[in-house]
Write a structure and sequence with these properties.
single chain, 135 residues, mainly alpha, two-stranded parallel sheet, 3 helices, 53% helix
Length: 135
């Protein structure tokens, strides 16, 4: 199958990758908005009816899994590696680019999700095996 639109396949893949990145940020923003709007209310109502803490912690996430946002997110996650391959991009991504050299303790972590609430006492560079956009 051909993936070119008025140019090379690489150029088309780069354009699609840029569009997917923007769309992924929009989905992330909408998810954050839903978390803000529903989170505290769900916690309050859940405690009032005696729901388990485990249920309260994931309630909004589970509601969001039933929306089109979740489906769009899954499609984008499946599409990104393919676009990276076609566009000759590396299979990794810089999450927080900086404009100067950085120095710090290097920590290798399986997933960034487990690190989101951690506070580092010293400058730290994280090398993560997976980032899913929920961080």
């Amino acid at each position: 199958a051909s993936l070119s639109y008025g140019g090379s396949a690489v150029e088309s893949a780069l354009l699609l990758k840029a569009m997917c990145d923007r769309l992924f940020r929009v989905v992330g923003h909408l998810v954050d908005t839903f978390q803000t709007l529903m989170g505290a209310k769900a916690q309050h109502l859940g405690r009032a009816v005696g729901a388990r803490t485990q249920v309260l912690e994931i309630f909004v996430d589970e509601v969001l899994r039933g929306t089109a946002l979740f489906s769009v997110s899954l499609v984008l996650k499946r599409l990104e590696p393919q676009l990276r391959t076609i566009a000759h991009l590396p299979p990794w991504q810089m999450i927080s680019p900086v404009d100067r050299p950085v120095q710090g303790e290097l920590q290798v972590v399986e997933r960034m999700h487990h690190m989101q609430d951690k506070v580092f006492e010293t400058p730290t560079v994280l090398l993560s095996g997976a980032v899913n956009g929920e961080e």
